What does this fold into?
Amino acid sequence: MARHSDFMEFVAEQMAFVGGLRIRAMFGGYGIYQGDCMFALIADERLYFKADATTRAEFEAKGLSPFTYVSRGKSMTMQYFEAPPEVFEEQEAMRSWVQKAYGTALKASQGRRKK
It folds into this structure.
């Protein structure tokens, strides 16, 4: 039985402009994809966008935190940062941050394919 999340549905509505949008349940949260490229995730009713060395500074300048979890007693940090609040208030902000996150994820996946 699929689990239900009002927040996940809200995020899906906010990202309706994304062509090929897929949201997949995973590890107690959700992965958000455009096609086969995961650019965001939802965990604990929070949205996180993919970040890299270039975009990380933008998240940190806004005081936003990375996604962390505990595995085998160790705290792990992923390259996903909490979405700024304005993405839920302004459609253009959502578009802008989705584009940055998707570009970052695409660049990362292309780098992995070259190795």
